[in-house]
Amino acid sequence: KKNPVQIGIDVDAIVQDSSPKKHRSHHVVVSFENVQKSFEIGGSHIKTLKDINLHLYSGEFVMIYGPSGCGKSTMLHTILGLEKPTHGKVHIRGHSLYHLDSDHRT
Length: 106
Description:
Elements: E1 2-5, E2 13-17, E3 28-41, E4 44-57, E5 62-65, H1 72-79, E6 87-92, E7 95-96, H2 102-105
């Protein structure tokens, strides 16, 4: 059984594997707090990530899917430290990702 997770992004769904596990981790690996990302295109601000609050735990399998241009790659780039969010916080294993210098971010 899969449960959709609502996160305020124009993605059809983010689905977590909720199958029974012997040992579920309580360690948050990635967290988003009110993350927003917008781009300026032709003088207009286009929001691709809209107030995302998300916690991903060690050992979880997460799938992100949706139509082209909805923000999937932007979200992954933000997790990887490649695109700083316009607003909000990204934490990797408890460390604020975008407060680290580029050497420590990699």
